[in-house]
Amino acid sequence: MIPASPSPLRISDLRERLRDLGCKPCHEDRLLRGWSQVSSYDRKGSPAATFFPAAMRNELPTIEAELDGLARLHGEYPADDEVARLLVALHDGQMVESVLLPRGGLCVSTQVGCAVGCVFCMSGRAGLLRQLGSAEIVAQVVLARRRRAVSKVVFMGMGEPAHNLDNVLEAIDVLGMQGNIGHKNLVLSTVGDLRVFERLMEGLTHKPSPQPSPASGRGSNREKQSPIPAVKPALALSLHTTDDALRAKLLPHAPQIPVDELVERAEAYARATGYPVQYQWTLIEGVNDGDAELERIVELLSGKYAIMNFIPFNDVDGLPYRRPSGERLARIVGTLKQRGLVTQLRDSAGQEIEGACGQLRARAEKAKETVRIKAQTP
Ligand code: SF4
Asked: Is residue 21 part of a domain?
């Protein structure tokens, strides 16, 4: 008799449970493909009804219900035909945001809250509340795929992926190996952390082993030591300024790595993978939109395998920052393009619906708190 398991928050928990039900890697693979691609478990000449071991077939409805409960739609806020913010309720009532982006893109969250505390971001206001398990990250893709096709996943929602690296890389492996998403279309975003650079570079030099064999046993050292990633994602680096001292103020809890070193490490990864680094820069009027910054960007990124993405700050109540004028934005982008840098201006998706990343969740939490206080008031 198999003991009842809690919801599998991590893919490794799910794999372990399947092994307990007599599954081999081929069975795990088929279940993960069906789940992550929102498709049938049947194959031509090999229906699931005979392919899966009997114990697993019996347990499958329970497993499916648990996977469904990992990420449920709490609210959808469309901006246009292609872009919508999704407020996603997790199994324990915590909420995160995912964003449907143009051309089959999806932005997912990796943590509830965030410890980096960027001064211009709502997600970091309350600090880190909890990590998301890898299955909860993939579940956001499944939820989105139930609404429309997803061919690109960016890990740029709530949370700093470097602070939850095992779960993020496990989710990336499943999406790249079973989820039918091209590896260069999986974009890991970070404020810059040596752990990320080291793990990604490790993935380039080691033979991948995404699925521990049954013989390796549960809880083997290799599993505990963070598996080497099988999939090489593209890298996005949130720079926001070229000035180390200003960066320490804007991103107060990011590792204090000099900008020159960040660019050098990101460039090494870009050259090794063949995917350009996507630099992210939230433009704030009078803070990091000056000519001196532009000169330094040109100096830093000329000749590099890089794309500069500028995201104008979203005005947020209670924050003392403003987005630069449309004229200034056009001039910034025009200047860098003229100087030979690949430069894009991106609006934070859904700005006109509910503001910056983290605001939907903050608003939903406030509403829950109001209901709780009302219920307690005699
Ligand atoms: S911008 Fe990203 S890293 Fe910074 S606080 Fe927000 S979620 Fe965290």
From this structure: no
Tens of pLDDT along 184-222? 999 999 999 999 999 999 888 766 555 544 434 444 444
Alpha-carbon distance of 352 to 148, in angstroms, equals 22
Q: Whole-prediction pTM value?
A: 0.88
Q: How far is CA 86 from CA 47, 96, 141, 233, in A?
A: 34, 8, 11, 24
4 found inside a domain: no
Is residue 20 included in any domain, yes or no? no
User: How are beta strands 95-101 and 105-107 bridged, if at all?
Assistant: antiparallel
The minimum-distance atom of ligand 1 relative to the CA of 122 is: 6
Confidence band of 372 (pLDDT split at 50, 70, 90): low
Q: Is residue 109 part of a domain?
A: yes
112 forms bridges with which residues in the sheet? 130
The catalytic position among 28, 66, 97, 136 is 97
What separation in Å is there between the alpha carbon of 374 and the centre of ligand 1? 32
Domain count, the chain: 1
Query: What range defines the domain where residue 290 resides?
Result: 71-376
Q: What is the pLDDT averaged over residues 133-158?
A: 97
- 304 CA distance to ligand 1 middle (Å): 25
Quote the pLDDT of residue 365.
62
**Which CATH number does the domain housing residue 224 bear?**
3.20.20.70
